[in-house]
User: What shape does this take?
Amino acid sequence: MLSRTADHLYWMARYTERAENIARLLDVTYRMSLQMHGSSGGYWGAALGITGLEVGYKAKYGDEISAANVVRFMGVDFDNPSSLLASLRSARENCHAVRGTVTSEVWETINTTWLEARNSASQLTHESVQGSELTKYFEWVKFRSHLSRGVTVGTMLQDVAFHFIRLGTFLERADNTARILDVKYDELAPEESNANEYYEWGALLRSVSAFEIYRKVYRDVITPNRVAELLILREDMPRSLHACLREVHQILGLVANSRSSETQRLAGLAYSRLRYARIDDILEVGLHGYLTEFLDGIATLGNGIAQDFLVPMA
Assistant: This one.
């Protein structure tokens, strides 16, 4: 496969997954802020922190963090290349560049998602922050991302093109899960529990579609350590770091070329550390340090994939 084609497929998948992750993050932040009424600024600041967008936000809106401005900046602002709407546009542009490689169903799904999202973006305004239309919009974005993945799995030949789409999906998902757990765990793990703790941990789990899974696996009250274990080490949890790195490692083996041995080795090493880790050991050395190292590893893997398979970075 041409490296340019692989590049478009990989980034098409990453941007689609990124848009879904932003929708999840904004949705859970909005729901949590409703519980806090006038003191919700910390939640919106945390949303910027998870995505690393504080500098860009402050350059445009100043130091004051408000729900309306954060939703606008992360939702529809094209000056922010990582906004929800900009991500859907980038996914569509990358898909358009390889229309001959993906099926017509994949193209139609991604193109329609972009067109409808653009037309509905007016919902992400100051007025809609106060209403239910905001959560409906986020749910729609998540649904369209699920549809995109389903159409990809259901209509595409499972060849090299398919593998690069999946590679982009799981690398982006691993990055997002690590970020939201890092910021939220530090924020929601007080020395003493409070009345909002259960709701906040439940909202965190819902942001990665893990609330029902948690209750099925643990059948007990929600605790920070079990949340960390579920999202890091459970191989059967679809958005866990373990599950994502397992897929990345396997896919790199399927698309391997003469230059990719070091990237494969790094992916295998990261996967092995998750496969044989214990949550007590991770928490003992510090979750923040562990997740920071993990995110650095994801960035290194992304750079390795770009150098080994994709269009050379400028």
Observations:
- The chain has 15 helices and no strands.
